[in-house]
Amino acid sequence: MKLETKYDNTTIAFEVRYRNRKTIVIRIEPLEKILVDSPVGLSENYIKEKVKSKGKWIIKKLLAFKETGYLPSGKEFKDGENFLYLGKNYLFNVILDTSIVRPEIRLSEDKISVISPSKDYATLRTAMEKWYKKEAEKNVLKRIEYYKSQLRVNPGEIKIKEQKRRWGSCTSKGSIYFNWRIIMAPIAVFDYILVHEMSHLIHANHSPRFWKLVESIIPNYKDRKKWLKDYGVRLEL
Q1: Residue 165 belongs to what domain range?
Q2: 26: which strand partners?
Q3: What is the layout of strands, in order, in the sheet containing 82-85?
Q4: What are the pLDDT digits (tens) for 38-59?
């Protein structure tokens, strides 16, 4: 359902999705898309007022997207584009080699090179996504091993997944799942996500004790959390 409201002289158009939840959540996505997840049964007027009350934040967020020049799914997978890996921009380079069956990816000091039998968009995109997932798994396992002794926890299954709305999640059985896109984030933010989810093995909620534990491992976690909130939208193919 599409609705709109006014904040000062700005019209805010948004999409409402009713969900089995207790509170309203407002999300801003690139290309000025505003999504509102609302508990079932709330009136349109109530939802409009709620969105209006967040008008200043919504406008600020939309402006931030414009300033970063971010366009989702804007990659054409062509020479000269930039791709993020652990917070650093790498130049994308395609090398055509029809003698091979599947693409190979090599990371150098300033370049991500794809040796591929085809320069087809789908082929290159699939190759990059698979590579990112493998790199995410390798780095997640390495950094979890580092933090295990500090947190004194031993996670169960650790898995890299396709997660559109979460950077990570922890199950009641002690399994931890991570969004493969975190491999694009700076290592400081990458580590924050890992420590956040590992801390849920001790505290299953976001209580003061949970955040105290996170802070004991990452004293400046708030800065890293803020980076994720402000720039996490850029971690996308």
Answers
A1: 136-234
A2: 36
A3: 82-85, 88-96, 111-116, 104-107
A4: 999 999 999 999 999 999 888 8
